[in-house]
Amino acid sequence: MKAAEKERLYDVLKKTSGAILGYTAQEFTAPPAFVDDIEAENAPCAEQETIAPPQVESAPPQSQNSAASVLSSGGASIDSVNQKIAACARCPLSQTRKNVVPGEGVPQPLVLVVGEGPGAEEDEQGRPFVGKAGQLLDKMLAAINLSRDKNCYIANIVKCRPPMNRDPAPQESQACRSFLDAQIHVLKPKMILAMGRVALQNLLDTSIGINKMRGQIVDFNGIPFMATFHPSALLRDESLKRPAWEDLKIFKNKLLEICPDYDK
């Protein structure tokens, strides 16, 4: 295959990946130097001296700043991702929603908070966590010096309201997953806080319940991750407030290790 043919194929794969994910994947941020393949009929005979093909030096690893600059130049931003979410019709939830709920917060958050999906008030306003559970979430975050207005971004597993506030179906969560992955890629949070069983199980692709996983710091693609009870569970059962507070203290201590001055 000629170098020009390889380059054209590479461009097609890059554009297809970007259209699906909503951002330029890391694999496509540093194009390789393509060379023509050596034709079989021109290969050296066994008794002849073998000439090694030219070695192509791999690009040096990119720093976080250079990677961010590639994203910027490619036009990827949280706004561009959210515009794709607003136009989505991948699953039946798009047919029953009043408003899509992409997410809300600062563009360079310390923490990404992930819930399960919009409720009735979120569907009305197009904003995440604005009902009673959202008001409690704001208080929980404020208790450890976090806020959607200052250092957090809040999103959900699915971006449209499931009817009757039921759990998202697997196919609905899967339809939205690339959007959440794109948000994580663009926002680059220092930590992720999953609110409740649905967020935990979908993000970690596990069937383990919230009671077994809550309060544990685990790795999510290089990002420290912790799950705790959903605020709506605390509204239903006040006995969960104490363990949820203990979880938040663990989360804060880990965040202080990463960003020692964040709460000042």
Structural descriptors:
alpha/beta; 6 strands; 264 residues; 43% helix; 6-stranded mixed sheet; globular
Explain the overall architecture.
The protein is an alpha/beta fold. Helices cover 43% and strands 10% of the residues. The protein has a 6-stranded mixed beta sheet with strand order 1-3-2-4-6-5, with helices on both faces. Helix 3 (78-86) packs antiparallel against helix 7 (170-187). The longest helix is centred in the first third of the chain and has 19 residues, at 3-21. The protein is globular and about 65 Å long. It starts with a helix and ends in a 6-residue tail after the last helix. The model is unreliable at 39-74 (pLDDT under 50).
> Could you state the order of secondary-structure elements as H and E?
HHHHEEHHEHEHHEEHH
What is the count of β-strands? 6
Oligomer: single chain
The major pleated sheet works out as:
6 strands, mixed
Structural class: alpha/beta
Proportion of beta-strand residues? 5-15%
Low-confidence stretches: 39-74
Largest sheet strand order? 1-3-2-4-6-5
Rounded to an integer in angstroms, the radius of gyration calculated over CA atoms is 23 Å
SSE layout:
Elements: H1 3-21, H2 64-73, H3 78-86, H4 93-96, E1 104-105, E2 111-115, H5 120-125, H6 132-142, E3 152-156, H7 170-187, E4 191-195, H8 197-204, H9 210-213, E5 218-220, E6 223-228, H10 231-236, H11 241-258
Parallel strand pairs: 2-3, 2-4, 4-6
Antiparallel strand pairs: 1-3, 5-6
Helix pairs in contact: 3-7
